[in-house]
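Treating backbone geometry as a discrete language has practical consequences that deserve illustration. The sequence in question and its structure tokens are set out directly beneath this paragraph.
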Amino acid sequence: MTYTSEIKEGILVVNLTGDLIGEDNGFTLLELVNDTISNKIIKCVINISDLRYINSSGIGVLITVLTKFRNKGGEVYLVKPSESVKKLLIITKLNAIFNVSEKIEEAILKLKEVS
């Protein structure tokens, strides 16, 4: 997995590409989240439209990211999951825990409404 990140309107926007299977790439993503939170940014959009595959370790990474932001009073939106990732979120009931949006801009607008 590779990722890019930027701060847009006070919100961390992360674009994930490839396979989210935990291991080293999950660790670097969590470091990014910790650095972002230490800079007082507590809202995050994760674009997962280019994720091909996600396993249980990858799900664990996403849950950890969500937990870190929510523990600081923030929120996370997942953007445009593929059909296979969408099915996985439904099977694991994580669709009830994560906010999901179809567009990055839409997720940013919703996060800006949250105080």
